[in-house]
Design a protein that fits this description.
Distance between the termini of chain A: 17 Å
Strand order of the largest sheet of chain A: 4-3-2-1-5-6-7
Structural class of chain A: alpha/beta
Radius of gyration of chain A: 14 Å
Number of domains of chain A: 1
Helix content of chain A: 25-40%
Number of strands of chain A: 7
Oligomer: homotetramer
Mean pLDDT of chain A: 97
CATH topology of chain A: Rossmann fold
Chain lengths: ~170, ~170, ~170, ~170
């Protein structure tokens, strides 16, 4: 039977420098997902994706990276399994669809796309407060005038993970 | 040789009622794209997509609808060609990639996804002023802190189309 | 209203040398599609795709290339419109879904994938006799034991196009 | 670090009745993948996919189902993780790309597509002898005239799994 799958979304490495506080938050979120025995799902690359995977692995969790490429060479080293989509950045849809809920930590426009997809299919979504970028811009907000589902703004990684689990009736 | 391809994005029919002013703007944008001899690209469904296609057809233009489904039965009747993607809403990426520039008229979260994709690959983008929804929310703004490319806010459909053509060196 | 869309599939340029007879057949198929006022749909690249597009353009037809890439720089110069999917080779599904019928001219394993997709959704399919590769291997056959739809084997490009149109009630 | 990922492909339930011998082989393949500590990757649905997942779970393995749908409700009950692609049957590309090698057990045209994708990117591929359908038709053959990589024909599920591992330098 499918285990709980929690998506962590946020900055990739490489474009803007990412604050160490943001990466620490990503690491912490990953660790809690592992402790709660949920599978961590992410886009499989660097930055927030890598740090959250590392956090999960340091806590004996299981991690899945869903990468844009046809092969797994771009995946970060903390992915237990790599899904090689070969569909480029439109794999953002698959990250959101494959998560029982999304936790955003910082992030740019790719993170915004994942939140939009989560909004369309009404996934529970949390942005971590003061993690920067898109997460700070959209926490506590609806993504369009239909107000389908709110992006919750939560400071504590533990409470963020528990929020997703509760919304799925798992805690 | 490829002709100019201009994407029109905005509200689909069916969820929220769309103001007649917004649909009139969509119709007008479609007509101007046709008069400029560019191909109109869109998501192929109802609302802004349908009205812009109708505007293009009433002015002897050519229209392509890129639909989520595997078959063309959901396409609006003003599409000359229908691209049946079978990949669901992630076809939003293909709409943006396949356009030399995007013009948004109103719109919800799907429109926001298309703008995000355009932003990633730096397509010229225009939101029509006072057309509602996402277009009003994001006109004149950048989609994340990297400030890759601005979404221009333009009132006149004629100037919007000319802006896209100029940015492509076509006028 | 959607015009008839006929897909031409077969060898890409670049891997194996393609016989001039095969390219001549592709050119001829493209010309007839144009004369019948149908839109030519293809994968947008070289080889059979390019020659069929050239045949259509020399006969005042309209051509659409559905390419794997995010941008149109790889498309052959005879495409009027380019659909930039950004989903890599899985765009083969879109080529098949977007065609009212498929005509194969030679071809390798990519062509076989397109025939398989056509077979799943029961598109009329024709392989041109003596055009080489996959077309010769699979003409007159079913693709699996369910015998959903036969790949017709037809020698004449004219009759091949007419077969697709007839099966769609268009001639 | 990514664990070994072995793809099992073959008949879905529902169209043709599947011989119990074929399902037994699928179950056995799944069990061996688990014993070898590799992750089982598949299309997540019924038939061969379900039996191989059950085999893996009965041997304490880990299973990933990559389904066509946007949600996981169609996945078989033996998937530990479900990747919800939302891209329909073109998810066949992702199954093949995400596997370090493919083992086919029976199968129809969908299985043939997965073998074609494996052939393009030169994945080690094995068809289990006497498992029916596509596996019997294509075992021991190349998929086109370029002869990129042979589909090995192997009778024993144990040897099939060991073949894939060896080709990846893992045994």
């Amino acid at each position: 039977m499918k285990r709980a799958q929690i998506g962590v979304i946020g900055y990739n490495s490489g474009s803007l420098p990412i604050k160490s506080k943001t990466l620490d938050l990503a690491y912490e979120v990953g660790g809690i997902i592992a402790k709660k025995n949920a599978i961590l799902v992410c886009g499989g690359l660097g930055g927030v994706m890598e740090y959250s995977c590392k956090g999960a692995k340091d806590n004996n969790g299981f991690t899945i990276g869903i990468v844009p490429q046809e092969d797994y060479s771009s995946a970060n080293q903390y992915c237990d399994a790599v899904i090689c989509t070969g569909i480029g950045l439109s794999r953002d849809f698959i990250v959101a669809y494959s998560s029982d809920g999304l936790i955003s930590v910082g992030g740019g426009v790719g993170t915004l796309i994942e939140l939009c997809v989560g909004y369309i299919v009404k996934k529970p979504m949390v942005s971590i407060s003061d993690s920067g970028g898109i997460s700070d811009d959209y926490g506590g907000k609806y993504l369009d005038e239909r107000k389908r589902i709110l992006i919750e703004k939560i400071k504590s990684p533990l409470e963020a993970v528990e929020y997703i689990l509760k919304k799925n009736g798992l805690q």
